[in-house]
Amino acid sequence: MTTGYDRASCRELRRIALGVRDPSTPLGRTDSGVWMESRGPRRLMAYACFACRRSFKRPKSSESSPCPLCGGTAYPMGRAFRVPPRSDAEQWLKVQALYALGFRFSAYGSGDRQLPDRLADVEPFVRLNPHHYCRTGSVDRSLLPASILRSGRSRSPRR
């Protein structure tokens, strides 16, 4: 038993019914006749607040935004960000250190060098991988956790 609609027609009818596409606009074009970049909903990106250790998704923006829970600053982490448990303070400090050093979680394993597993491994990892594929953001040393700053200052050059 067929309805007389092919698969593409059914998909378009579903999009119109869900409000994803305006039925008065020709398929793939805007009112001005310019081809649309995307016909689907906007993609969401993970944001993390280091103050309350929470993550949430919002439409993509290159800027930080206020956290909806605590009012602190929520930073754009990338679409491949895996949220550590709130109770795991070391993992949150590791994520904060990586973010402060310019790492963003937008690549889906497209490289051979994985990110470090522990906070203690961050400093040597950054030193050994200055051009890592996930290091796409700017460095913000004011976000570095105090434990990383202390370990960097306590070293004295060997003679």
Over the alpha carbons, how many angstroms does the gyration radius reach?
22 Å
Main beta-sheet annotation: 4 strands, antiparallel
**What is the number of beta strands?**
4
Distance between the termini: 85 Å
Inertia-based shape: elongated
Q: How much strand? A: 5-15%
Mean pLDDT over the residues: 77
Spatial sequence of strands, sheet with the most strands: 2-1-4-3
Helix and strand content put the structural class at alpha+beta
What percentage of residues falls in helices of 4 or more residues?
Answer: 25-40%
- Number of helix segments? 4
The ordered string of helix (H) and strand (E) elements is HEEEEHHH
Given as residue ranges, the uncertain stretches (5+ residues, pLDDT < 50) are: 153-159
Brief account:
By secondary structure, the protein is α+β, with helices and mostly antiparallel strands. The protein is 25% helix and 13% strand.
Fold topology:
Layout: H1 7-18, E1 44-49, E2 54-59, E3 65-66, E4 73-78, H2 89-100, H3 122-128, H4 146-154
Antiparallel strand pairs: 1-2, 1-4, 3-4
Features:
single chain; about 160 residues; alpha+beta; 4-stranded antiparallel sheet; 4 strands; elongated; disordered C terminus
Structure report:
Strand 1 and strand 2 (54-59) form a beta hairpin. This protein has helices spanning 7-18, 89-100, 122-128, 146-154; strands at 44-49, 54-59, 65-66, 73-78. It is built from 4 helices and 4 strands; from the N terminus they run H-E-E-E-E-H-H-H. The protein has a domain at 44-154. It has a 4-stranded antiparallel sheet with strand order 2-1-4-3, with no helix packed on it. The chain has 159 residues and is an alpha+beta fold.
